[in-house]
Design goal:
The complex is a heterodimer. Chain A is an alpha/beta fold. Helices cover 48% and strands 12% of the residues of chain A. Among the domains of chain B are: 68 residues, no CATH class; 48 residues, no CATH class. Classes of the chains: A alpha/beta, B mainly alpha. The interface between A and B is large, with 66 and 54 residues.
Amino acid sequence: MRRKQNFWDEIQFIDRRWLYLVLGVFLVLGLNLKCAVSNVCAEEGKDFYATVMKVPEGGTVLIQSDWTTSTRGESQGHLESLLRILMTKRVKFLIYTFADPQAPQVWRNVIRVINEERESQNLPVYRPWVDYIDVGYFANAEGSSIAVRNDIRRFFSRQVKDDKGINRSIFESPVMTKINKVGDADLFVIVTASATLDVAVQRLSDRVNMAAMVTGVIGPTALTFYQSGQLKGVAIGLKGVYDTEYMMANGLNTPGPDGKIVVEYDRSEAPVPKITEGKTLARGASYIVALHFALGLVIFAVVVGNIAMFASRAANKGGKRR
Amino acid sequence: MNLVTIDFIKLTLGVLATIGLYSVLYQETKIYRFFEHVFLGLAAGYALVAVWTETLYVNWWSRMFGSFAEDGTTMAEPGRWAYAILLPIGLMAYFVFSKKNNWMSRIPIGIILGMWAGQQVFIWWNTYGPQINATMQPLVPTTWDTWFVPYMVGMEPAQAAEIRANIHLSQAITNFIFLLTFLSAFSYFLFSFELKGKFMLGFNRMGRWFLMIGFGAIFGSTVMARFALAIDRLSFIFVEWAQAASRFFG
């Protein structure tokens, strides 16, 4: 190991655990700082919001929820904001996963929490069978997606308990009565942290309108699909969560109290309304300050590290000359 | 035990596991190892049960045996005996551990490979067809009324549709940059012949720069994702657990 000769060397060889500690302190500070962050929403996020808001009241959305607690920081915010929009618009949904057997328990927790939140606000809660159907986990994303493409009624031909506790085919439920093929769904939304996005786009994007909510890691792949029109809109990472919440609170092309439009959307000349009931700014809004702190710290550390490297080289060269 | 106590115990265990796993940031200790093994064991055990309850039972077992109606005597769904054939086919995969009979494991593997291969033609087209199509961008402006796309909010739909049908100068420039990026990055992967001349070498180098900028953006997005996960864990400890603790301690 190189010997530390001066201050700049000390900076370069600082114990990484100090950096972790500083990062942790910054994140906790950011989480506890309650302040509004102004936002410029990403174009793909605006398209995502506009696409979801186009689904008519009483319509049906297919949700493929392929995430577990390992990406809770991003995907839970995604699913929460999506469900809040659907519940406000009284849109019904079928939810399932092709990715992980742990995923169903995770979304069941999210639905329960949002229902409790709505109940506390005297808003109608979403009931299984009447408002949504939960069909759980299916192995083999490739084979299952093909089966959905070919014959959705046969693939999901299973019985669940109706609102009276009697086993009935899910296609007798108000959620699924009009669904004879996958294209009959008003929208297909995949909330994912993995390559099941590719599998779904490859097998279903030519049959049904598709949008995605993905983690920052999957974001670049999703953007390619978005640019080519295979996805109608994408919410990416924590920024995507905050964008969605921000649009839920402000709408698109919708004037605020001062008459100014907060979020402009040039793909539509008409306003896309904001969400008028329940929570809008939630998980994304409470995490975004901490994310800014963390990214600011990284930029600072990179700049200081580079200055230290050049300064250390210059100092050591000078020392040799002497 | 009331719900507040259960909630507090559950979240406290979660907090201990989070701190235990994050202790690896300080150094690898027995505490970290313990929680790592607990996590792996729980995940494996949960997955095993969930595969049966969420998939095999509903999609295979109950379809094979059918189900009774509420009266318990008439069949609501008839059993389909052909599903029984799937069991021996699946079990054949385990013959991969037998030196003598491992040829049998190739049967289920062959079925899976065949299914996979059969899907590839339309999957290729479904993946790349729309992307190739989207690469064909117009480069010549069709209107010179304004250089930029006019502000359309609040405009009549017919008027907005007319504006959208035209290519403005700003859009043509954007499309040109897109095409330049695409072709130069594409040229970087031409390995079949040697690129000669200043123009081709420069174009190739430009493609490499664009690729590196792209990789940087991807890396940045990944870093943001990792921070989001850390923020969520800290929120779990300092917000969710703290709230549960304040409820528990009154």
